[in-house]
Amino acid sequence: MRLKPEKVELLAKKVMQSLQKHQRVTFVGTPDLVEGAVRRIILNDLRQEDALEKEAEEILKQHRLAIDRQNMSYNTLLMKTKQQLARKKKIVL
Fold first, then answer.
1. CA distance 56 to 86
2. Which of 7-11, 20-24, 66-70 shows the lowest mean pLDDT across its residues?
3. Nearest in space to 37 (alpha carbons), one of 10, 16, 7
4. pTM of the predicted protein model
């Protein structure tokens, strides 16, 4: 899932606001530092998902003829392959 930088920024702000509102977390750093950490975590997660998708595409590329011959849905296979790789690598999608 691709997110624009503005959307990542908005998500980080909303997470920070929610944490502050519910007062269930004690902050060690300033709100700006925590928001920056949340932003980095979101971006890192998106990069991991992109890498996982590229790896799944490479796997399917090797079997493209069989996929075409058997009239299978490429998108469905891509999603399933990505999920298998995520489980194997212990990544939560």
1. 10
2. 20-24
3. 16
4. 0.77
Q: What's the length of the chain?
A: 93
Side chain identity, residue 56: A
- DSSP 8-state symbol, 29: S
Give the Cα separation of 74 and 84 in Å (integer). Answer: 15
Collapsing DSSP to helix, strand or coil, 14 comes out as helix
For residues 68 and 54, give the distance between their C-alpha atoms in angstroms, rounded to a whole number: 19
Cβ contacts of 77 within 8 Å, gap of 6 or more: 60, 67
SS3 (DSSP) at 25: coil
pLDDT in tens, 10-42: 999 999 989 888 887 888 888 899 899 999 999
